[in-house]
Design brief:
about 170 residues, Immunoglobulin-like, 4 helices, 8 strands, elongated
Length: about 170
């Protein structure tokens, strides 16, 4: 019970002092790599590539969402993509475009967001933590991760990640 109380106190401190969170809160292993890259533009048309790759175990029920945060008058070629599953290290690359209705005004930027929700392979994450070198995670962190992952095995929880691309202002 003391461990859970300590974790709650650290979580509360992390909300108040984010820099403290980076140093003292355990960082969960990232089960996947996710990125968004602008690959080119012609006038008001911007082309993007989204990359998703599970790096610890597989990933299932993968849903990608795309959104233009600014400017308001813009159109997406696609606003989502669905993948049944990917094996570990298998890369999914998806291309989409953003078409702006008007030219950008001085100081205005294009702000595009991509997000992903998926079910990671919790058993592989448990194995990864168990096999991690002693200097990577403390015993307390390992126990915490394993407890959370075992809970997720019983009651599957989808992982969420998001990335943004913001143009330079003129």
């Amino acid at each position: 019970m003391k461990f859970k109380s300590l974790m709650l106190v650290l979580a509360a401190i992390a909300c108040a002092f984010p820099a403290f969170a980076d140093k003292y809160m355990p960082q969960f292993p990232s089960p996947a790599e996710f990125s968004l890259k602008m690959t080119g533009n012609k006038g008001n048309l911007y082309n993007f590539d989204v990359f998703f790759k599970p790096v610890i175990g597989s990933a299932r029920n993968i849903v990608l969402h795309f959104k233009v945060l600014s400017p308001k008058k813009a159109h997406l070629s696609a606003n989502s993509a669905v993948i049944i599953s990917l094996k570990e290290k298998e890369v999914f690359n998806y291309k989409f475009s953003v078409l702006l209705e008007n030219e950008l005004k001085r100081g205005e930027r294009v702000n595009v967001q991509a997000s992903v929700k998926y079910l990671p392979d919790y058993q592989e994450l448990i194995n990864y933590v168990l096999d991690a070198p002693e200097d990577k995670y403390t015993v307390i962190d390992k126990d915490y991760f394993i407890e959370r992952y075992k809970s997720a095995l019983r009651h599957p929880v989808r992982t969420v990640d998001a990335v943004r691309w913001i143009s330079k202002s003129f």
